[in-house]
Write a structure and sequence with these properties.
Blueprint lengths: L2 H11 L4 H7 L4 H8 L7 H10 L4 H5 L16 H9 L3 H19 L11 H5 L2
Helix pairs in contact: 2-3
């Protein structure tokens, strides 16, 4: 199965529209429709965005075996596993996570003192 047909199958299974995926990859819906029919190719960057949106790696999307991955929920993970999941995020996504944590900690500690966390450089670099 080519990647366009794979994306279409997953998109339909998840109840998503062509418009939603087209917006995700900054493509006009009519052009995206051609991706699904195999008339147009996707860039690696766009395919990677779609894969991440589906909770898959690019390799899993390209070599799709018909089984969607289980949804990742952070709540049922150990702290170490949660940190490993954060490490997989893009730098701007990591920054967003740390800003949210800062906000929650600031709210919680507003009566006593302001505690800010800085993203560990190891996490931010993805090493």
């Amino acid at each position: 199965m080519d990647i366009g047909k794979t994306i279409k199958a997953i998109r339909e299974e998840k109840g998503l529209t062509q418009q939603q995926i087209a917006e995700l990859i900054s493509m006009h819906r009519s052009n995206y429709s051609r991706v699904e029919t195999g008339e147009r190719d996707l860039s690696i960057e766009a395919a990677n965005k779609v894969a991440r949106y589906f909770g898959m790696s690019l390799d899993e999307l390209v070599n799709f075996d018909g089984k969607l991955p289980n949804e990742v929920t952070v709540e049922d993970k150990s702290l170490t596993e949660q940190v490993k999941l954060i490490q997989q995020l893009e730098p701007e996504e990591k920054q967003m996570v740390f800003k949210m944590i800062d906000t929650f900690l600031t709210k919680k500690n507003s009566k006593t003192s302001s505690t800010k966390i800085s993203p560990p450089s190891k996490l931010m670099s993805g090493s």
